[in-house]
Design goal:
The structure is a homodimer. Chain A is of the alpha+beta class. The first copy, chain A, contains six helices and five strands, in the order H-H-E-H-H-E-H-E-H-E-E.
Chain lengths: 188, 188
């Protein structure tokens, strides 16, 4: 696909087919993602791939629970707007995607968020190029359940940056309205 | 350009032609960059474009000075490895690029670093697609000089995420060695 088509076609997908994805294809996305630029060529990104339906559901339930607790403790936070959605028992934070790819790295590492975000961007574009859909789901970071953390190999030295839901899109939404870019100053 | 060519051809460029870039073309890159996904569709990115050679040189000198002070104060920091390079008076942190695009936003905003990094990724790919070269130059964040900050409109409410050197590449280097991706776990 031409880059400009990828720019146009890459949408955050919230409606996935249940169709599974070949593990080989997922690995190709990851191979593309590590072509991203990164600070000092340190390539700090690591990956965890979850395609187990039961585990994905349990992660979703745990993250919903933890995020709702956060809202309860911080009732004036802007996060409050998500309370109703997350309180819906049938809501799955990953929109029932068949796969979730976690991009993460060593906790507190300088530039980790920027570097993993760049890798995430490459992964999402590569997915679009292969007719897959993605959604970066921030809620997916709030994993506390010790059983789940152990199953995933998530120890406290690791910091999640990008939980990416991945699957074949059921429906590709239009592009949400973009504001005109705020160019604060041009100094010629 | 096909996405896979962009992935292959996008290199961090450290050798630019002095040839200027049409402001219209820079604006097209910025228009592409705001197609990036972002948390809650808040589009927190803002831009400052500097194509004034004298100002770029002064930013470079100020950032070198400030980063060297940091190294002096933190002699055991891994940043120490940059001391020799930054002490070289003729070294320009932007590699004499004719343009520097700053991507920034409101200081401390949740998800700002991730969102601006995604925009940076789009901008760098769009540049590659138009035969331009880029380099994300972290040193370019360390602007302290009050005159420069005022000229740029950089007040303390703004946080720089991505200083991107931009220009026509003199030389496109090969891809630096990539480690095999660290897939910590696949849970099927």
């Amino acid at each position: 696909m031409e880059l400009k088509e990828v720019f146009k076609n890459r949408r955050s997908i919230r409606n996935f087919k249940s169709e599974p994805i070949d593990m080989e294809l997922i690995q190709r996305l990851i191979q593309d993602s590590i072509l991203a630029p990164n600070a000092g060529n340190e390539q700090p990104w690591k990956f965890i791939v979850v395609s187990n339906r039961d585990l994905i559901n349990r992660i979703s339930d745990d993250c919903k629970h933890n995020f709702l607790q956060f809202i309860k403790a911080n009732p004036t936070s802007p996060a409050k707007k998500y309370e109703k959605m997350l309180s819906n028992e049938s809501f799955n934070i990953f929109y029932h995607a068949p796969v979730v790819v976690y991009i993460l790295g060593n906790a507190g590492k300088r530039n980790l968020v920027a570097d993993c975000s760049l890798a995430a961007s490459y992964l999402m574009m590569s997915a679009t190029d292969k007719d897959l859909g993605t959604c970066w789901v921030n809620f997916g970071m709030y994993i506390k359940d010790s059983t789940i953390r152990e199953e995933m190999g998530l120890n406290d030295d690791l910091q999640i940056v990008a939980p990416i839901a991945l699957g074949y899109p059921e429906k590709i939404p239009g592009i949400p309205v973009r504001k005109e870019p705020q160019i604060l100053k041009i100094i010629e």
